[in-house]
Specification:
Keywords: Lyase, Transferase. The chain is of the alpha+beta class and about 210 residues long. Helices cover about 30% and strands about 30% of the residues.
Amino acid sequence: MSSEGAAACGGGVCPASSIEALLADWNGIDDVWVFGYGSLIWRPGFHWQERRLATVRGYHRSLCLWSHDHRGSPDAPGLVFGLDRGGCCRGVAFRVSAADVVPVFQALWQREMPNGAYVPRWLACSTADGPVRGLVFLLNRACGHYAGELSEDRLMASVQGAVGQSGPCLDYVIETERALRACGIDDGRLAALVRKLSASLQPEAV
């Protein structure tokens, strides 16, 4: 998931009520899992007890959300990852201790939920040690930040040219791909994009 698409709150789910609704059937004793597919993998920002490689089916990682602040600007928006429908996504599941669940969720809502770009859901996450039920932030296609399918030229230009409060969009994309490789996760589409972005930055041979 990405924490980089946050903007001023508008039209999103009320954080307090959505946390309460999501935790309504939690017994307050068991640890819970949080699934990361973007910057959460390399910058989770919360204390976790265990992490496992995990797969969520029915959704795929995609650079499909405009960022007008953290990785871009209103004049030159960048792109951040969302979990869009179709396919499957390999990522990392983090186990959060029961004692930390409420503060961790509050921090995650501040990070992920200010503009309605994501919809939190409990989904089955397949791991080598068996399935776990994890919190997953799915893309909300109805939000105003949804970029949809972009041409490769426009996607590359947006990534290369955007800089926001959290730094260049290019760094965000490269760091995510690097973190996936470090975990042994092969995202061929993202890897191909990073190769093209890197090649475009190389000076031409004289």
